Design the sequence.
């Protein structure tokens, strides 16, 4: 391959350089969340190293010292692992628990195994100062199979990170909404890019009779560069979004779960919302908690206030009554009163806000 400083190589190379610079910049944030910062840097450094290696390979710069093309750094397998633990360490672990990266060591296992392989190949390349070992591995179809395993592994990692974030979203305080939204968006972009890479690689194999070409890597590396530029823009403009130590809505998850159980008992089993004069104070007494704690639970955990929470149950009760066999015997106002609404005007406004339909329109849709 001839030395080639084309536009693609320049974009890819500068993307890698920006990634390395951003790693240095974000390392200064380590006091906020040390483990999250370290794993994010592992993710970004590995992604940037990916671009760097292939840019130098395409420029044929390794001809000056051939073994470097087999440098024993398992960067591909560390991209997903770094991303996964970066997401997880945004959220607090239970006290005295095993750290995530030790508890889920198997996520780092592929990188370790590939490190051993690369070290072995690198030692041969150093001894021979040639590309021979690379040619042998290529002809064995190892790289082709390895690429699919790496991409599928990375996709699973992205999906797992998104699912973990969604589960934790229900427990963190409402003040964290913006940062949580960023993490979910970050996961979606990661998943999207990996999916595109899988499709590009598959298409490349199909049109080249089962043999990969450098054309696939050009597309992948340009996408990686754009991804790094995007991360860089967000990193320099919104660094506070990247690293957090989210706080949960209650002191312990156990306390929060207990409150949820009590609410379910009085709302679904006892149907306390049928009382049109129900107040936050009365509900808190039934639950055995303070009004402040209950109000905080509604706002932080459920994203609504007391009235919205109660009216949600009342609307659901009206919908059940409308669907019952005896619904035709009563007017809508009567059904609303049975569900706990105190006035016709508030019932109409609340019902439409919750369902998007007026009570009469909803009832007609049921009849149809």
Sequence:
């Amino acid at each position: 391959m001839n030395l080639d400083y084309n536009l693609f190589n320049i974009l890819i190379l500068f993307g890698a350089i920006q990634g390395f610079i951003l790693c240095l910049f974000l390392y200064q944030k380590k006091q906020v969340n040390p483990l999250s910062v370290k794993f994010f840097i592992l993710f970004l450094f590995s992604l940037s190293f990916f671009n760097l290696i292939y840019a130098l390979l395409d420029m044929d710069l390794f001809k000056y010292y051939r073994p470097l093309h087999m440098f024993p750094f398992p960067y591909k397998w560390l991209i997903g692992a770094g991303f996964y633990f970066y997401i997880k360490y945004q959220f607090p672990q239970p006290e005295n628990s095993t750290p995530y990266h030790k508890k889920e060591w198997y996520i780092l296992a592929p990188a370790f195994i590939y490190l051993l392989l690369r070290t072995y190949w690198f030692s041969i390349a150093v001894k021979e100062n040639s590309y021979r070992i690379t040619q042998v591995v290529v002809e064995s179809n190892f790289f082709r199979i390895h690429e699919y395993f790496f991409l599928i592994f990375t996709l699973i990692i992205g999906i797992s990170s998104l699912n973990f974030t969604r589960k934790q979203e229900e427990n963190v305080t409402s003040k964290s909404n913006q940062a949580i939204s960023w993490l979910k968006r970050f996961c979606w972009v990661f998943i999207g890019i990996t999916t595109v890479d899988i499709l590009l690689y598959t298409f490349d194999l199909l049109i080249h009779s089962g043999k990969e070409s450098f054309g696939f890597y050009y597309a992948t590396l340009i996408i990686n560069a754009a991804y790094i530029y995007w991360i860089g823009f967000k990193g320099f403009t919104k660094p506070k979004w990247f690293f957090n130590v989210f706080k949960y809505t209650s002191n312990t998850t156990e306390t929060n779960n207990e409150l949820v159980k009590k609410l379910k008992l009085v709302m679904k089993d006892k149907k306390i919302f049928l009382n049109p004069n129900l107040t936050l104070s009365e509900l808190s007494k039934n639950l055995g908690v303070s009004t402040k704690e209950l109000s905080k639970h509604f706002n932080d955990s459920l994203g609504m206030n007391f009235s919205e929470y109660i009216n949600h149950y009342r609307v659901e009760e009206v919908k059940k009554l409308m669907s019952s066999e005896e619904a035709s015997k009563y007017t809508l106002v009567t059904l609303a009163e049975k569900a706990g609404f105190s006035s016709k005007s508030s019932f109409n406004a609340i019902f439409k806000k919750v369902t998007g339909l007026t009570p009469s329109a909803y009832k007609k849709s049921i009849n149809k």
